[in-house]
From TrEMBL:
UniProt-listed InterPro entries: DinB/YfiT-like, DUF1706, NT_sf, Polymerase_NTP_transf_dom
Polymerase nucleotidyl transferase domain span: 161-210
PANTHER family registered for this protein in UniProt: HYPOTHETICAL CYTOSOLIC PROTEIN (PTHR40658:SF4), PTHR40658
Name of the protein this chain belongs to: ClbS/DfsB family four-helix bundle protein
Coiled-coil region(s): none
Entry-linked SUPFAM superfamilies: DinB/YfiT-like putative metalloenzymes, Nucleotidyltransferase
Gene3D superfamilies associated with the record: Beta Polymerase, domain 2, dinb family like domain
Signal peptide boundaries: none
Species: Paracholeplasma vituli
TM segment ranges: none
Amino acid sequence: MEYRKESLIEEANKVYQELMSLVRDTETTPFLYKGRDFNHRDVLYHLIAWHKILLDLYKTNPNPPIELKKGYTWANLEALNYTFLDEGRIYPLHEVKRMLDHSHESVIQLVMTLSDEDLNQKNRYPFTGSSVLGEFIDECLALHYGWAMRTIGFQLGDPTLRQLFDTLSKRSEIDALVLGGSRGKNKGDQWSDYDIYIYLNSPLKVEDRKTLLDPYMSLMEYNHQFFETEDDGVLKNGIGIEFIYRSLKDFTQLIEQNLALKLNRGYSTCFIDNLLTSKIIFDREGQYERLQTHVRVADKKAVYKKVVEQNVPLLYGTQPALYDQIVKAAKRHDLVAINHRLTEFLSLFFDTLFAINHVNHPGEKRMLELANHLLFKPRKMVETIESVLKEHASQESLIELERLTKDLIELSKKV
């Protein structure tokens, strides 16, 4: 992509005005969902901090590996972003808005001094690595402002749910309410349900749940026990919703067991991912947020190493290895067994792949899509998996699956 000074400035100013208009229209409305950013100020200060990083890097133009801020590199980016969060909390929103006006203008003034060649020439600025200065600037201006608008819009939430959550938060049995699942990750689509996790300190009777929830539902089924205790239904706006009831004490113990390397095969770090990616709606005494912080900063390298160690022998190279079982099922033309073993194989394959990348297991949906965005992955992963599924484990596709598995094992040695 070629970057042009005039268009970078024009787009940045345009999106910036849209962002500030959104802030003016919504700044008195509290966020319904709280993730890393709890309010408008947190989002805007994040932009300021990255403006400062850009300006400092341009001024010093360091050679890689670079420090984005003292003690922080691209390798611990998440920790850096939480540092910005702590920095910004000392300022009121009106002061942060003033600071953002200033930092935005400072970056625009920098761009005005540059030529199109400056923006597009590779290796001209060592700190940009394999990218160019124009990309770095775009990421800190228009693209980042777009992120800020999406974040604000998402975390303001569905206003029709505010009264429901406010009603639930008044119950003394409830310690915390959080939004999980794909909507909690802001990756939902028109088919996505709301996954509301209700953390209890004592049981909430089914009759009480009916009284609390029925006024908001067009359809509701109570007290399912298929996996966890759940109430499942459809809101009056037509969107599905699930209420999953947990003990916060028991959930904390489960997470601590995960950190102590007691993990399920195939879904090893799912609960850790669920904890860290869920957005807080209500947290009576801050227990859920403290658990998030504890797990987020914990060293999880041993967890990922354990996942690989326990999964790889079952994928390939041992007597009970799933790859061999798939081959045998294919020779028998047993389609049910092929699909059964492939399901188990893929469960361990993706579990291992995410662990190799030090990424927590994201759950069952969009697995191949999410895996394809990982930094480390086997060659021709998507093509091979789609082929072996579509061709019901044909001989040719199984040869490719074996190659894929061996590639994964080689990658696993990086953990």
